[in-house]
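Saturday, quiet lab. Running sequence design on the structure tokens for the scaffold JK sent over.
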């Protein structure tokens, strides 16, 4: 999970874009429960995956050589949001998953501070990047096809 070392870097990265980074960081400070609506489809899209298979998918990507970016886990609503490059094809709908893109917003907790909000950031320690959509798609297809039973390792690392 995100800790004091990743919080500022992730917050600055998420705050980049329209309106200026410093302005958005200040808005996060003033926001109720430190939650800010971030626009999808500008620097990233978000693929929404139900919690149970989402954790399995996250674990598979962590165990592989696949690029894995920030993932927001909304514990109240029961979803994980994987951040992927924007404007890709919507290959997610046939799997029953939703892609948040241009015109959508992600209610994101400020990763710099603990807040009374049930969302937490799962963050790779090797820097901010986006999750590889092809790798995410493969992991989603494998996990969703197999159901959400016991964790199984992939025979060959992704990538």
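Result came back. Writing it out in full:
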């Amino acid at each position: 999970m995100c800790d004091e070392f990743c919080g500022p870097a992730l917050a600055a990265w998420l705050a980049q874009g329209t309106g200026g980074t410093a302005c958005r960081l200040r808005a996060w400070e003033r926001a109720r429960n430190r939650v800010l609506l971030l626009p999808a489809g500008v620097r990233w899209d978000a693929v929404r995956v139900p919690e149970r298979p989402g954790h399995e998918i996250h674990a598979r990507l962590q165990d592989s050589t696949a690029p894995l970016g920030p993932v927001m886990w909304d514990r109240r609503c029961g979803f994980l949001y994987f951040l992927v490059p924007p404007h890709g094809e919507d290959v997610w709908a046939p799997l029953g998953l939703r892609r948040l893109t241009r015109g959508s917003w992600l209610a994101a907790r400020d990763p710099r501070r603990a807040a009374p909000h049930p969302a937490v950031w799962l963050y790779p320690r090797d820097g901010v990047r986006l999750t590889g959509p092809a790798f995410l798609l493969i992991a989603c297809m494998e996990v969703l096809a197999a159901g959400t039973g016991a964790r199984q390792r992939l025979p060959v690392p992704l990538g």
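Notes for JK: DSSP finds four helices and seven strands in the chain. Helices lie at 7-15, 21-30, 51-62, 133-146. Ask whether to fix the surface positions before the next round.
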